[in-house]
From TrEMBL:
Its main location: endoplasmic reticulum. GO terms for biological process: proteolysis. The keyword Transferase does not apply. This is Vacuolar membrane protease. It comes from the Eukaryota.
């Protein structure tokens, strides 16, 4: 034993310095790692991470012109001409003149495509008018809602081989929307998508003579009001029955790479895309996050999947997501190469899919396998190659790795005995302390930030601040927690080595304990990822492949270069090459995704407050801090284990503290503004005419200009800039039916002009039959509004029926509700109806249910908001004085610039 220790000590001079004599008691070991090696590792990780992100998400193809691509290729320079025309129309929501002009432009562009198409190709154009319909989907954002629409116009284009009529019975649908929200010209969302589709249609029209399937291009309207365009096509258009695969093009920002964030449920489309795409981009991580409900949004793809039973692909631009649905969704921010990237990928996909004889035929099989065994797991590597494999194969691989890992751990613990079990427990303790401290340090900053900065989210226009504000505390916390656990583990191992190696000098025993502690911390990282792999495999989470990579490659490197199952062998220092080999693939697979997700999360903070004033100002920071802390603990667990026996501890602490201090000082001193003209805060200005008083009872019209923000933080700075007599606070809450404003600002200055009493909607009880089965007939006249929202008290009303004259819009049947309310959202074109009859079927025990409400707040039976896309003179004055760092924010649940509020009390 003495001789083995002596020889081992002399054979590792790089990490162990030894002096020997014939007596082993004179052997001296010093466990130490070079500070420069640690510094080099951190620099390599930082540079490599940024390189992966840049190559995977920022490396766009060169825009091509028409002469370069010819008749059959895709040209961004041609597509961008369409974007220019559509954005010059300004915002074009449903019912606007601008939308009519946009539809006319798309029609003219398609006529040109028809004229230049290959002579063996049929190009059929249908201007489809959807009179009325109701979307009764109950999943996700649709729970508790019925979306009703009327007078919508869509353009449907079908391209098919002229001499293969059977091709029209198996169509590939490519879909996007022409309409925008009222606050944005929609360069990204989704004029860019429409432009790509027009250029794709031109290219496909030159290839389709060799297709086995038709390609249908759907340019729909009403998407921004609740996916109404896709719903009306699927439920009303005769060509919808021929669709076997659906492709949706969307945007959550403006430009960048358009990646797949939803695919399936059948894997055929994603597998074809992986084979065909020139610049493949897509991550199942984004799909997992989107389907979890963490992102409160939906796309037409949900209609195609749930209502039509179709499989396919959902694409979206996600760069600069802070501009989503604001004035900054404009052409000048559209990154060059964005359209070329999506266009070339889609053209290659359509050529391969259209020529295939293997399109999915049975729609019922799309949702047949509830276990998800046949779904696809997909991800791209540096935007160059896409990996796709089935969930069934993934489960087999995961189970194999899990069983082998458990076998190795069990064997190691059995051979190591009691000491190994205690060491595993203490190294696991270091993991828990790492998580606790990383989360604690970063979350503490999240609470402090609103107290020292002008905005609780001061990093929106300068996302790099997040590295210092949250990244540095997270890394410092992770290291601090792991180091405390290391010291506890070291104390135990020192005692263990002193009992087992009594003939070794105390200094040698101490260094051996340090080396063993370092190894246990590394192995604790393996245990962390093994647990995540087990959980992910159990719940069939697609992104579990990342846990596999972070487990298998570091474990392989450790097993190949370091591990031994013999407890009699003394520990050796971990080799730097072990870390390099073990982390190269995991960082390659996850670095770009992590930065992209953090950037998306930062941009999404602009619209965090769905009900302004309902959440504390620090909530957005806490969410971001938790996410970054989790990333630090998951990805740095191996690297941090190398620091504890080096002299890099103090430099790491100093560097992270300095980085945090500089970032905090930049925020506190206002060196960089939280918002800019191109990255604006979401602030809505609404002229409100309120006919609802206390307890929901009718009163004389009360009007004011309302100011509220979906971006966290008060509006004091904005109000000071505007003037116009605004008062801010929480003492004048507003109920907009689909959301509430608990904190806002209001001004009565000139609020009585710009609207007429004839614009105020009417709710009138026409007939009320009381008794055990009480039925009430109500007439609703929305006057000038073709966009309105009605809340029905589900605690009092069991069911209802909505009619437009003799036509039934919402039938009797089961209705879901959220928080005791069922919401009807109506949107339509200029010819949409304005008078409706509503039949209410009361619950049997409605009188008992009404007593459940807070006695101080009597909820009405009905509450109605009608929206008018009109800018009154006082609203125009406020908009003209709105700071440049602010922008109106639009969504289907937001009111337009003029809104009327009415209600019907329970005891009418």
């Amino acid at each position: 034993m003495r001789q083995r220790s002596k020889v081992w000590a002399q054979s590792n001079p790089s990490s162990i310095r030894g002096e020997s004599s014939s007596n082993s008691e004179n052997v001296v070991l010093v466990a130490k790692r070079s500070n420069y090696a640690i510094l080099a590792l951190f620099v390599l990780v930082a540079y490599g991470t940024w390189y992966v992100y840049q190559h995977q998400f920022l490396n766009l193809p060169r825009p091509l012109g028409a002469n370069e691509v010819g008749k059959r290729g895709f040209s961004e320079l041609e597509a961008i001409k369409h974007v220019k025309v559509l954005t010059q129309l300004g915002p074009h929501p449903v019912g606007s003149d601008a939308l009519d002009h946009a539809l006319q432009y798309v029609l003219e562009a398609i006529e040109t495509i028809k004229e230049t198409a290959h002579w063996e190709v049929d190009v059929e154009l249908d201007l489809f008018h959807a009179k009325s319909g109701a979307n009764l989907m109950v999943c996700g954002l649709f729970k508790g809602k019925t979306l009703v629409y009327s007078d919508l116009n869509h353009i449907v284009l079908r391209i098919s081989p002229k001499y293969a009529p059977e091709a029209t019975e198996n169509a590939i649908l490519v879909s996007s929307h022409i309409d925008t929200v009222f606050s944005a010209e929609g360069a990204g969302d989704c004029s860019s998508c429409v432009a790509v589709m027009l250029e794709l249609a031109r290219g496909v029209s030159q290839w389709a003579h060799g297709f086995k399937s038709a390609v249908i291009f759907l340019f729909n309207t009403g998407e921004e009001e609740g996916l109404n365009g896709a719903h009306s096509f699927i439920t009303q258009h005769p060509w919808s029955d021929t669709v076997t695969v659906a492709i949706d093009l969307e945007a959550m920002g403006v430009g960048g790479k358009s990646g797949i964030f939803q695919a399936g449920p059948q894997p055929w489309a994603i597998e074809i895309f992986a084979l065909a795409a020139k610049f493949p981009s897509g991550q199942i991580v984004a799909q997992d996050i989107f389907k979890s409900g963490a992102i409160k949004s939906s796309t037409d793809f949900q209609v195609y999947q749930e209502l039509a039973g179709l499989s396919g692909l959902d694409f979206a631009y996600a760069d600069n997501t802070a501009v989503y649905h604001t004035k900054n969704d404009k052409l000048k921010l559209l990154t060059p190469g964005s359209l070329q990237h999506l266009g070339e990928n889609m053209l290659a996909f359509l050529l391969k899919a259209g020529s295939s004889t293997n399109l999915p035929k049975d729609k019922a099989t799309n949702s047949r396998d509830k276990s998800g065994q046949d779904t696809a797991i997909y991800f791209d590597i540096l935007g160059t190659y896409m990996v796709v494999f089935r969930q069934r194969a993934a489960s087999m691989l995961y189970n194999s790795v899990i069983l082998q890992s458990l076998l190795i751990w069990t064997t190691s613990l059995v051979m190591g005995g009691y000491s190994a079990m205690v060491s595993l427990a203490l190294s696991s303790l270091s993991l828990m302390l790492m998580w606790i401290c990383a989360i604690g340090f970063s979350v503490l900053v999240a609470f402090v930030l609103p107290l020292v900065s002008s905005s609780p989210i001061p990093f929106i226009s300068s996302p790099w601040l997040v590295v210092g504000l949250f990244g540095a505390p997270a890394v410092l916390g992770a290291f601090t927690g792991q180091h405390v656990g290391y010291l506890i583990l070291l104390k135990y191992l020192t005692k263990t080595f002193s009992r087992r190696n009594v003939n070794l000098p105390f200094a040698v025993q101490d260094d051996l304990a340090k080396l063993d502690a370092e190894r246990w911390l590394y192995k604790a990282g393996l245990m962390q990822w093994l647990i995540l792999l087990i959980v992910g495999n159990f719940y069939k989470i697609g992104s579990s492949y990342l846990a596999l990579a972070w487990l298998v490659f570091p474990a392989f490197a450790y097993g190949f270069l370091e591990a031994t199952l013999s407890p009699a062998r003394l520990p050796k220092p971990l080799k730097t090459v072990t870390l390099l080999i073990g982390l190269s693939v995991p960082f390659l697979l996850s670095s770009g995704i992590i930065i992209h997700l953090v950037a998306t999360l930062i941009g999404s903070a602009v619209r965090l407050e769905r009900s302004p004033g309902s959440n504390p100002e620090w909530l957005g920071n806490v969410i971001l801090a938790l996410f970054i802390a989790a990333i630090a603990c998951l990805t740095l667990v191996y690297l941090l284990s190398y620091i504890h026996i080096s002299g890099a501890k103090v430099p790491l602490i100093i560097t992270t503290c300095l980085l945090f201090s500089i970032s905090l000082a930049v925020v506190q001193l206002g060196v960089v503004p939280p918002f800019t003209e191109d990255t604006a805060r979401a602030v809505n200005v609404v002229h409100v005419v309120d006919m609802t008083g206390a307890n929901g009872r009718k009163q004389e019209p009360a009007s004011h200009i309302s100011l509220f923000s979906t971006t966290p933080g008060n509006l004091v700075k904005e109000v000071e800039h505007i003037g116009e007599g605004f008062t801010c606070g929480t003492d004048k809450p507003l109920d907009f039916v689909t959301f509430s404003v608990k904190y806002g600002c209001w001004s009565d200055k000139n609020a009585n002009i710009g609207w007429h009493e004839s614009d105020i909607p009417l709710i009138r009880v026409e007939n009320d039959t009381k008794g055990d089965n009480r039925v009430t007939h109500v007439s609703i006249d929305t006057k000038v509004s073709t966009r309105w929202t009605l809340g029905i008290n589900a605690d009092e009303v069991e069911d209802f029926q909505l009619k437009d004259g003799p036509e039934e819009l919402v039938p009797i049947g089961d209705k879901s509700n959220v928080d005791g309310w069922h919401i009807i959202q109506f949107s339509g074109g200029k010819k949409a109806p304005r008078k409706f009859s509503l039949t209410l079927f009361w619950a049997d025990n409605h009188t008992l249910k009404s007593h459940k409400k807070d006695s101080n707040t009597e909820q009405p039976l009905l509450k109605l908001r009608t929206d008018v896309d009109r800018i009154t003179s006082p609203t125009e004055t406020v908009l003209g004085k709105l700071p440049q760092w602010c922008s109106l924010f639009g969504k289907s649940t937001s009111p337009l610039t003029l809104a009327f509020l009415s209600s019907l009390p329970i005891n009418f």
